[in-house]
Protein 1
Amino acid sequence: MELFFTILILLAMVGLSNVLSGQFPFVPVPLMQIALGMIVAAAPAGLHMHLEPELFFVLFIAPLLYNDGKHVSRTELWKLRVPIILLAVGLVFATVFLIGYAIHWMIPSIPLPVAFGLAAILSPTDAVAVGSLAGRIRLPSSLMHLLEGEALMNDASGLVAFKFAIAAALTGSFSLAHASVSFLLIAIGGIGVGAVTALLISGVRVWLRRSGLEDETMHMLVHLLTPFALYLIAEQLGVSGILAAVAGGVVHAIERDRMSSIKPLSHELSDNTWSVIVFILNGLVFVILGLQLPSVFKQVFDEPSLNNGAVIAYAVVIFLMLLVLRFLWAYSFSRGGRWIGKKTASNVKIKFGMLAMTALSGVRGAVTLAGAFSIPLLLDNGAPFPERSLVIFLSAVVILLSLVAASVFLPLFAQQPAEDTAAERAAAERKGERLIMGAAIRAVHAATTEDNEAESASVISDYERWRSNPEEDMRRMQLRGKDDLEERELRLKAIEEERRTANKLLREERITEMQAAMFQSNLEQMSMVLSARTNLFKLLIKFWLQELRAVLTKQESRIKAMRDLSSSDRDAIRNLKVQTCEAALSSLRTERKCDARAAVIGHYEHMLSRLKSPYSFGKSLEGDEEVRRDLQWIAIQAERDEVQSLFERNEITRDVADKLRRTIRTREATILSEVLD
């Protein structure tokens, strides 16, 4: 049970960190997750978890890198092959030798092989942390592709260099020639084993399908086990399991591209499942990292032979040396050659800002700390490993410093240009809206069957009309700008007036409690999708309490109850809606004149005209209208997913994402308002 509770707490921290990120967008999510892990560990009855490096690599690093390999742009990877190799291999070994000698000179108590090991484990960068920062500060896409490619490869090169350095510390012997040959064999072997194993697994999946085994759940299980198989097989053969996982991901992406027209639904299922897994694993990596830090700090700070101020100063100096070396490395290879895919003449210099962003983006992460924890406790002769606790402490502090420095200084170099005018931002919003509508159309297409073709065509037709009408799209964007908040406030006031009117009719016994409860439930859902964050939590609690009461009292769901309503109940609810709409309109007409008021009044007038039509009511949740409503919800969810995906891929800013989400909420509220009309 203890392990079960530990997992629950860790998952809760991951969820809490993403809730907090919405409230404090200026703080990177990895930093929040590390802080939450430290708080949980430092509490009086705190959570403690021993970090098993081998288990950590196979359980977290292998599937994350496999997923990165699946989604990395192979075109960009090839185009940026020179700078990627220079950073992922060349810079790693330059870091090992230059920073390693500097660490040994600065801290003589750390033997040279151990100093090389510390420098090696500090060389891998963490693309997850950089990606989190990029979603907030919009790094150039070319730089992001470079960082992604670097992170895919430098984990392997850094860990191989670390392995040889620690072996030298344990045995007291080291051969540069042997280490160089071994590195090539381990790297090339890892790529080869990963590619061959991935092809074999793909062949097995094809054979299973040809044998009639089309169960998507079983095929999804094969997908989930693939990265672990790639990593473990490669490690058993003595080659790089990390590069094997990356290569397997790339092979899977190639196979997917070839088969994309055959099994689109299975690909969508795979993407949705992997998105959940990656979200959880990314969060757990940093929460677990935070769990380790209090014990690491305590062990060093309680050591009487170490000066606390001195060891912190050592960590700061090491971080600055890594930063300067990375900047100089990028600068030296940017003159007269290719850097981030751009040809430059010998007399043309890459901008300082781009070089500074390249240097600051070298954020260290969980691989660094896991590698440090893998240092053995004893040497081969039985003596304690020299300065093991200090090495782990320095690694942990450098991780924190790299995250903080990137979050503070990267925005200074990645600011939007001055010519990013309101018109350009509006254009970005229009582009984003067309993209999310396209995602909704694809989702409805994927959910289309022979039984719902007509309803699917109706929903798709609506989205196609919205997407292909740029004039209406422009007008909606212009009205939605400064009046968006005012319109939501007016709609919430109108809903409150509807609620008061319904309560008044209930007190006068002109409607039954069941009719009032169903009507109020619909209003609560509309309030939730329209409310700002400050009111949303209160409304959610209220809605959950209502749902819990319904479960405890064994009330039927609102949708099922609507299907079972008698004709008299339907007429009563229709009349109730007419009266509440009229009350809301009377209230709205007393508000000051503005575009927002006109839009809300138009919405209620349209609703009244439908309610008073003799053919409008009683069909909304029967037959094809119920199916159409389900497809509308699928489209709405696809829009939300696409907004999050665009934001994570650094294609839209947070402001644009928030505006698109408000548009989706408005569309959702409109659907909800039609459930009872």
Note: The chain has a mean pLDDT of 77.
Protein 2
Amino acid sequence: MTFSVSGRGYASDSALSSHAASPDTLLAEALAAHSAGRLDEAQTVYRALIGRDPAHAGALHYLGVALHQQGDHRGALELMDRALEHAPGDAVCWSNRGLAARALGLHAEAAHNLREALRLQPGFADAHNNLALTLRDMGDLPGAISHCKAALALEPSAANTRLNLGSLLARLGRHEDAVACYRDALALSGQDAALHFNLANALRALGEEAAAIAHYRQAVELAPNYAAAWVNLGTALGQTGDYREAESCYRQAVALEPNAANLVCLGAALGAQGRNDEEAPYYEQALALDPDHADARQNLVWLKLKRGEYREGWAEYARRWRAIDYAPFDIEGIAQWQGEPLDGKRVLLVHEQGFGDQIQFVRYASELAARGASVDVCITQPLQVLAQSVPGVHRAWTGKPAGDYDYWLYVMSAPAACGTELDTIPATVPYLFARDGEIEAWKPRVQAAMQADVERQSGKAAGHRNIGLVWAGSSTFYNNRNRSVALGAFAPLLALEKTSWFSLQKDPAARAQIAALENGAVIHDFGDDLRDFGDTAALIMNLDLVITVDTSVAHLAGALGKPVWILVPANGEWRWLEKRTDSPWYPTARLFRQQEVGDWTTAIEAVREALAEKPKRASARKPAAKADKAEKPARSRKPSADSELNPDQP
């Protein structure tokens, strides 16, 4: 944004104080002082001129500009209106009036003023630039771009206008064009922190993280007090996994601007390093400044749940502070269930968030049924067949939640509504059941793969184990960089004898990683035949053990009641609590925790040592008959009889 002052050079203090000087000379001297930033000096002369001649349009106009610069936009408009009464053809005054109107949020009025300036002076580059910014504020991005280009046609060397054009292109998602604008502007203006900052933002949007980080660094080097640049540098570094340096950047930002957003960023950087005891105070400070700050509240909620503080944690979680975490909706005419009596009531349990979340919390259908409700589940298609198998589910269906129900409830609001605490988690497993026919269909394929490995390895089938492996999660998950493990890191496990490995990955990249394995390592890949979670469940039921990073398969195996060993990152999710090697949600689970973000060596070695223990054969479980109405689930945490591959912890 630019304003116009038509100064013609500097005049001496003696000339400014001369009573004999002409009004034109005094105005020129005032404009020179104004342009040099000496606003008090300029205003003294403007007021003196107005005192001599209340109709002095120039003095009225530029005194208004000075007030605008000092934040008195209303006063500026009043003075400029008086100036325009006497000089209605002054394009510069119309343009500057537009700036004052825009500062007050009067965007339509500002646009009218700027268009009037351009009508009077079509070649007025500043007016084009300022109209572009006003149109941007009004949501007319194409119009704004048009006026930026018009300004550049008049003044090609205007770096500020190129910066504005780049920002407009970035808003339209045209990041490559924005990068070109910013680079042109840098070539014109040399080293400018704001240009480096905006260029870095556009490069990040294009996925060019290293280049973005380099330009953020230049921005903070040029302007060490540039808090926003420190924040974005920290975020970019965090996305590469460098949380320690991200923490350092956020500390700089907090020192400069200790606002709620920056405090939350610092707390999150500490949490990302697994330093849970240090992060909470920053969220609390943020909430003291902004009690409704969604990220601060949500991060504090996750920390409470990770610590097992369920009574308060679930109550806060049920409020869903961040809209990006779920798709909010209401079913017209149906109330959300909040713990009312359910005998004889119809309840719709509605899916939300990821597959793992749905698997973990669909168990609450049995809880609701045990309270006397008829329970339907609205769930995503890949889980529909399995959801139908949950004891107490009347019908599982997909689509838009609707229907004739007494209550509806998000699956992840169920713990709060049921008053779940650590010692009352409904942990009876299995609560998901694969179909008998599908289990049987997988059996010969698994046995054939195992037999080939037996012949290749020891030649004896006794004691041979079939283990499913998941080493990577979805790339779209926010913490996937830290929860996933390179397949090559499992080499010490894959080298074990009397073991067959089965990939439970479905992504195309998995096949390439399997093909790249060295030293004769073999993983059987049936990914093309795993069409949904029902297929994966049937395959798992033919295995002795599942070893997985923190993905939906961890929840699936646990819900099936199969032994599952889960590799939990140092900055693991709240659902695995802190420091525990077991899970109160899945009695057959064993947790192997990473000690430091980025280093899986210790955890994988612990898994190798556990596998080296003499195991007992775990047979595939035949699904229990599904009751029409669920019994009240037992509270036992003891593994079932076929879970002996999950050794007791020391």
Note: The first strand starts at residue 335 and ends at 336.
Protein 3
Amino acid sequence: MAFLQQLVLVLFLLRLASSATDRFIFNGFKDAKLTLDGTAKITSNGLLRLTNEIHNLTMGHAFYPSNFRLKIPSSSSPNGTVLSFSTQFVFAIRTKAFGTSGHGLAFALSPNPSIIGGRGANYLGLFNQNNMGNSSEHIFAVEFDTAQDASFNETDENHVGIDVNSLVSTVAASAAYYRAGNTSARESISLVSGTEIIAWIDYRSDLQQINVSISPITDPVKPQKPLLSATLNLSSVLKDFMYVGFSSSTGKLSSEHYILGWSFRVNGEAQPLNLALLPPLPTDGSRRRLAVIIAYSFAAGVLLVSVLAATAYAVYKRKKKLSDIMEGWESEYPHRFSYRVLYKATKGFKEKELLGSGGFGSVYKGVLPKTSETVAVKRITQNARQGLREFVAEVSSLGRLRHRNLVQLQGWCRRQNDLLLVYDFMPNGSLDCFLFDDEKAKSFDWEKRFKILKGIASGLLYLHEGWEQVVVHRDVKANNVLLDAEMNGKLGDFGLARLHEHGQNPQTTRVVGTLGYMAPELSRTGKATASADVFSYGAVLLEMASGKRPIETMVSEEEGEMVLVEWVLKNWQGGGILRAMDSRLKGKFLREEADLVLKLGVLCSQAVPDKRPTMRQVVQYLDGDASLPKDLILNSMVLHDDLGFDQLVLPYPHSGLQSSDSSGTAKQFTSY
């Protein structure tokens, strides 16, 4: 009898929860009555715009005006039972310039039809510095974040995360999706691409499981495998009645955050949006469309002339877009590709072909039309024309470099202010993808690591001593080591920092490098030398052996906080240097090789350039043609604070191995 009474109560409450307000759908927001605050507004054509590009350091909220019952009493749970809910929406993020954004948007459940106390910038309008992690906030959110904040444990500036009363996500992943029918290959999505993206968020009460999926609007089928999936008991997070909506913010860099359509339902799957009814995003071509509308009011003859003129203009624009506009000096340099060939090879530089972006531009996968050869095309935007000719001359010259451990530069192309560099395609990506991905690291054994380290050293020795000029790489790091199909390490991006120096005031020194890999003397002199490359290579040696980043802080009860090289040095001084080895290797490594790599990494990381070995010495050590000095004396670490920079100084006795460029000033240093 008691069971029947409970069943009747549950059925009654479920009926109450399934009232007329248990769902809604907006295919555009032209007639929607939402609760808006901050910069949020509904545009004339029905777009929900949360923030705009005009104002920075702002935030906007938009919530459905009525709340929803999302929790019912339960005898089995003191906090009640959370009902299932589902939502689907289409959003877009537009920025003023590629690669800049601030800061993102979030779908949120809140006890109030707004977010009380929320702040902009990295807080996404959801929280502030005082209430992060406070369970009394009762906020559940799914963030679409376009800025990286290390204090929130975020790994990149393009990710999706599930948040419970905090922006330190319960689970997060880089923005991507699985194509329909394919649950193994992930396709990356740029949240700031400016194009429409569909999002699905589903919570199943019976499994206490939340699933999040996204997909570009060009592939509108809901992926079979979600991007994020987590088991969450939301009974203590959600109140009985909650408001649903969106929150967004900008920082010092502003963005426009749009919602084009939105569907929501309690106890069931949200109704699919009608994509054909969604309002279009604003474009710069609005005036052109208005001119077309006016033209249609003219006589049939005028209309015909206009259509013919427009067609001719379109053909002209396309030909001009793909034509090669060369200046006279360009014909002097070999290895030049036509822009038309590279445009076709990359399918018009489509986002689908984008392999990645970095400090020197974006890299696209391409297939050359005539040879069907797969290549990597790096697209670099150079705003200053001054120095462009000198850079092209240098690129063409260094295109003659040939070494098995250098990514081969096949050629170049200039298009207005864009430089396009064509490289051999490396199917296994960059070294850091294997080293810092726990799944890939399982198969990344010591034999492969040691082979790659020897290859990188050989490539650097060739740059320093094996060509007609000394070539300084300037940015040796794991991210710039690429892996071919046989897992051979090849150095890429050597000397591209040079591009960013063209047109600079010669009286001004611009420090180029990556924190953790950059030799300390660069911050004082700004002059890159072969010894600075050795310092950077030392960081890679320690990375490969320990599986930790050079600027990653190591914490232990006895030693406090210290950076990687200090931690390795401490273990060396304590007589247990192999304790610094990557635990994921599970002790499967040759002790002699591991000992050599760790010690050599510390020696290369010395702050005084003259104390570091040359690359020739490094290669001889790794090849077993020379041994580290047996009389090596380790003093306590000495930190010098002169000139405002801490420097690690270790004694390094000369072993009689001399570099061919040890005179320092005898050779010209050229960077590419």
Note: Residues 94 and 193 are 7 Å apart (CA to CA).
Protein 4
Amino acid sequence: VKQATITQVDTPTGAWPFINSRIRTGHSRLVAWFETLPPGLRDYGETLFLGYTRRDFYDDNVGIQKMGLVHLFSISGFQVAGVYVLWRKFGRWIGITRERSLLIVQVLLVVLLLFAGGVQSLVRAVLLALTQAWRELGWLRLSAVDAWGVALLGGLLLEPGVLHNLGGQLSYLLTFGLLWLTGKPGWWQCIFLSVLILPVLLWHTYAWHPISILANLVAMPVFTWLVIPVLLVGIGAAWCGLTPIMSCCNALINGIQFGIAQMDRVPGELVFGQPPLLLSGVALVGTVSWLLRRRRRTIGLVLLVIYGVMFLLPRLATGGFVAFADVGQGDATIVRLAPRQVMLVDVGGKMNLPQPPWATPQKRDFQAQQLVQFLRGKGITRVQQLVLTHKDIDHIGNLPHFLQQIPVDNIYVPLGMMQTEAYQELVAPHCKGASVQEVQAGMRLNRWTLVKHPFKSGAGDNEDSVAVLVETGPKRLMLTGDLDQAGERNLLDDPMLGRVPILKFGHHGSKTSTASEFVQRLQPNVGVVSAGVKNRFGHPNQETLVTAYQNNMQVFSTAESGMLQYCWSGKRDRWQAEITSPIQLPGRP
């Protein structure tokens, strides 16, 4: 926007909308002021005191998620408890009656909830505090467990989706566990609560690090007696213009950030994959039963068996899958052929266009992160083969970020590509000891995968794309990168090509690929298009869809259906679409 004029201002009518508007305006102004603080005070202060989490917070504060410290960095129970306890003490000190003090604290809690924008983690804490005040006033005659139930029902009424996200689930689960741990030592509470939330963490994050228990044991007292006081002093010093004190406090916070980041590098993380929902539920119920002291030894053994099954299940599962990842206008295909045999064909990528000066630089490659999370969700921590079909950015651009997170044994590129500038810039500096090899037709990458193209050395362009024929369970799959129609016709000279039931259309469904003769020879039943939503190239092209219709194919597109998965076990197979249904083909109802 170069120039604008405000023609009308929305003025709240009525006392309550006006008060709410003033509170939220004050919150936004405080956020703007906190943005001027040094990074350490800014990040921790905004999240702990304002309930505001910057977009780059977890990128700038490595280790918080892996160490299971997320619950400490949300405006939730401890802020509410602080307001409740401090006001009650202050009220007694200035001589306010008990009843009046409890009425005032309820107002303060509602103001805190409005101030923080009604964040879900705060709803639970405020409702629990309100029920506690009502119990002290004699308005409610409930046990602590019943009060927790009332807070849960109230939270669901105010925010029906509160239990559909990790924060809401942890918030209620942790407070429920604390109800049964009253009087227990702090170290015991921390260990048990870590075990209690483990099924939920595995469902959402797919992994667990044993050091997270130690991290929480250390972090709780450190936050209570060091981080919070240092933040208060540092923010107060910044407000008063005492720069030396502010700098010292920021240095202390930076030291804590550094320590958490170092813990993130400790090896030993266990990637379980996403466990079956039934097993997660049984583990959660079993942990609660153990908490209630019913046959602890038996339940403990059962829990160990359940977690063992969770860990081994993805590693011993029979069958496999092919996942056509939704990476926008790009290509990335994941093929799990056996428990220890995972192959990727391309990793997607986006062209880095020049950004205006005001634009915030993107620190995380979200497409690469998506691929990594999908692999971890399947219990996959290593890739045996990575095929880079050619040098285009939309096929290999995510490679540097991907290789930072997942080890790869072997990387394959088309014959001649290692001499290109794209290879020297995007591939060679990031291989981290992986074996890189140029491939050509006739080479076998593993017992299931045969290279069908290229036939000669090239420059890694579309016409030099690697094409592979993969034995995926009961059906065969052909992947051709961006190979053009001329290259497809060259494949027809192979008398052993045979029928291929699943064809991934070349070049995102462009009319430059998917020659009619090629499709007629392969006789595929299903065609897959990897393309971006409303992409500027118009992929898949109408000519390609007409070819598919004429050959009685069913076509799926990541632009329409999101990630597509073809799964098999023995001779049984199935398709799974993330969003919708097959593409509407010309002339087909």
Note: The chain has 22 helices and 17 strands.
